[in-house]
Design brief:
The complex is a heterotrimer. Chain A is α+β, with helices and mostly antiparallel strands. Helices cover 33% and strands 9% of the residues of chain A. Chain A has a domain of 39 residues: Histone, subunit A, CATH 1.10.20. The longest helix of chain A is centred in the first third of the chain and has 18 residues. Chain B is α+β, with helices and mostly antiparallel strands. Helix content of chain B is 39%, strand content 20%. Chain B has 16 helices and 17 strands. By secondary structure, chain C is α/β, with parallel strands linked by helices. Chain C has a single domain, classed as Alpha-Beta Complex (Amidase signature (AS) enzymes), CATH 3.90.1300. Chain C is built from 15 helices and eleven strands. In chain C, helix 9 packs across helix 11 and helix 9 packs across helix 12. Classes of the chains: A alpha+beta, B alpha+beta, C alpha/beta. At the A-C interface, helix 1, helix 2 and strand 3 of A face helix 9, helix 10, helix 11, helix 12 and helix 13 of C.
Amino acid sequence: MIEPETVLKVARLARLELSGDESARLAVELGRILSHVDRLEELDVADVPPLMPATGGSDVYRDDATGPTLSVQDALGNAPDTSDDCFRVPKVIDDA
Amino acid sequence: MTIQQPGATSSEYESVIGIEVHVQLHTRSKMFTAAPNTYGESPNTMTDPYTLGLPGTLPVANKEAFTLAIRVGLGLGAEIASYTKFDRKNYFYPDLPKGYQISQLDLPVTANGELPLSSGKVVRVNRAHLEEDAGKAMHSSDDASLVDLNRAGIPLLEIVSEPDMRSPSEAIEYLERLKLLLRYLDVSDCDMEKGSLRCDVNVSIRPTGSDTLGTRTEIKNLNSFKAVEKAIAFEVHRHANVLAAGNDVVQATMLWDEDKEETRIMRTKEESADYRYFPDPDLPPHHISNSWIEEVRSTLPELPWVREDRLRGMEGITDYDAGVLVQDRAVADFFEDAVATSGDAKATCNWITSELFGVMKERGDDIAGCGIPPSRFGALVRLVKDGVVGSGGGKKVLQAMYGTDKDPATLVGELGVGQISDEGALEAIVRQALEANPATVADIKAGKKKAAGAIVGWVMKETKGSANPGTVNKLILELLD
Amino acid sequence: MTAPWPSIDALAASVRSGERSAAETVRTALKRISAHEDLGAFLHVDEARALDDAQAVDRRVGAGDDLPLAGVPVALKDNLCARGSPTTCGSRILEHFAPPYDATAVARLQQAGAVVVGKTNLDEFAMGSSNENSAFGPVKNPWDTTRAPGGSSGGSAAAVAAGIVPVALGSDTGGSIRQPAAFCGTVGLKPTYGRVSRYGLVAFGSSLDQIGPLTNRVSDAALVLAIMAGGDPRDATCSNDPVPDVVSGLDGGVEGLRVGLPKEYLGDGIEPCVRQAVATAAQRLAADGAEVREVSLPHTPYAIPAYYVVATCEASSNLARFDGIHYGRRAEAPNLSSTYERSRTEGLGAEVRRRILLGTFALSAGHYDAYYDRAMRVRTLIRRDFEQAFDSVDLLLSPAGPTPAFRLGEKTQDPLEMYLADILTVAANLAGVPGLVVPECVGEFEGAALPIGVQLMGPMWSEPTLLRVGHHLERTRGEMPAAPTGGTA
């Protein structure tokens, strides 16, 4: 099961807003889905490696060569707000 | 809070310091995309769809970044991972266009290295892992922030020490030595002003003699080694005051305020980020073969501390000299090449550190930019040593060596600064000098050998400085003997 | 009655020979797009650009370029990037987004002479099985407009089924090409993971996603795959191995072929008409010299839970970039933190937010081992199931979904019920193996005449066999009627 408070905490992590009603409803929905997912616990996978990567490939590299860059116009072309050739965003406060 | 000397608490408490260094690797292209790795270009001109985090773009790892990371691992005497992978570190920030940073969680490219300090103490390096740099957010005039993504995606190596340092000065020495190593290895220019080397510091204190670790805080926003030193001292003292007041240190991330010279709390452990790491499904894992490692090893330079020991063994070279010479690999190379010609390590060292550095400073050059080949510089030192030119004349020759490929012997002639060192050639004028200064001769004969200086001066004046004063002095004493 | 499209091979040949121009071929497709606007299959059409591109193809043909897809009109699911074209992923948050670059698969088709005529509707960010999760309205099934076309590539399936275009690209993360192909009566191919570059496909579940074609016939899918497939320096998960010839062996028949019927795919909950279609197909294969036997994929019951963990975890990270900061829609908000939250909450639909929450929860501190790591281990078990099955058979024949097309609105109330409908398609994505859906018949379901497809799955990189057998089923099946709505233009 999952508590509405947990849903709210997860929503904050995912940068999603939730009202109290929504968190209660989602707690029920996610709880149902998770109880189905919990079937995975029936399997003993201790000695089974994770499938990584899906193709079985490895060791893929680029040579260190430079490629084309976008013009500033193209780089900022889809930006919701710009200023001085930069992306303009509400003030950043150090909280990373 | 008033700042006291950290020493005031040091007998009761010992500080425990660990350092995380982020160094930008100087590849041509970015870590996971072909956009150029540059500094100082105008904003948002060094991007491509991947750098912007546009949907549908994918990362592909830069092989050279691995090679440089392996170099660092070998330079630290660390283990190189035979199997390594990338993970996503998920968080939201305007300088992080994908909403996650590709980093390495549990399988860093290299681990378990060591960095020796001059005291002989060894700082253990826990790990070094590859990741991509974020962009830059700057405050604009109108209370918004402006984001430039030129830096986003530049390869970073994060080098994490064990908490092995016990004082701010040890921390600084670790940083200085690590920077020296990275520059010797030619993996980065390590310029803190340009942000190509950055560091965060973990600090805790504990009763002296205790072997358990106290609660630590992490200090960020340290923009110079000076700031690192001050911030550690401040934080150690703050911890001591907290404990002295009977309180507990709160585990937290602190920001160093450069202007106020104090730390302030950024977030506590309870608020700590949940990065939701998982293996990046876009990047298949990497195997690093022994042959690749050996290939990199074969290109490693002599490490700076090994070289320092070797230079110290050269005749006349003091600990101080050796320390100065190895600070810059190019200078040490120049020195050794010059000695091969001059045959005199001490004189070569003196000429480099006093004369050549002086000239370079005047001209704003570095040793590569001065354009003087070490063999020619060594030849000049040799001419001085052999008395062909005096030190004053030598300096004139050095100035003249800029912008010409004439050898110093030719310049001595052209500048007319050659010195007469031939005893036969000087004997006549020395005799003349003795006759002209009978009172001084009497003094010398009476045992005042220092009085010979006046006669040397007379000869130098008569010869317009071209006599070798050492030879003149020797002749005076011989003729009066 | 709209004339059905000829095979794309024949279509391209007629453009190359000058019998018709690329421009008039594209004009036909554009006319059909407008005639079928009511289906909701297309999100964006740029007629002027399509015609410009078609004329450019005509010039290339005139200059003697030998273009295998000369003048072939193609529709792209709107999660595939084409330079300068809107790419919304069916989401408000990307309503005005236009990428400055082309997906590799799209660029390869264009290089071969294909002309993009429009972008098709989809479940938002490919999350859904009914195409009802699009922010821009649902797609209607051309066979019965009260029914869902399937999802998430619903617009692409409907566009091909209605005869609007001869080929559309889709993407398949858990069945999103194959299930709509089955619902709409088209061919749908999910290639082996790593066969087609994902560069330019907006990621949903990165370790599961593949681009593939939806077409009228198997040979068309083979030709399109042949052109899209192969290594790409921009996608580290795309195989650099040479791509085997998938086109010239199509007529090779099924003599001596070993076909497995996975018993877990034919259990309770499969509609009788679907079961019957699989049985009929199996009988034809047996009659033509294949050996058909029952096999087991014992971990099938764990495929849905493993899939929903892997897909939502990866999606929660992949969709973090949709934050209103660097591109896409930004909500008005007083500060940075509420800008993030409001942009994402207003810009992303309910199902997308639900899956992001699920994935974020599963990756959050303390849960990684129980969810993502465990699910990735279960994937290994599921792949081993397939490997063991392929020790004794060459490929698997199964239904593509438990039922034919369900009604619009029927399953939207209960997310879990919708998830469970993916049971027959997700395992191929978890294991990475290819899957091909081929229409088998028109059957009666809930009083409606609806197409029923069958699914073939093979070992990794077995597309030549898969397409050959699919082609054989199609050839021996008899003519499929066209979707009724296809005749209105």
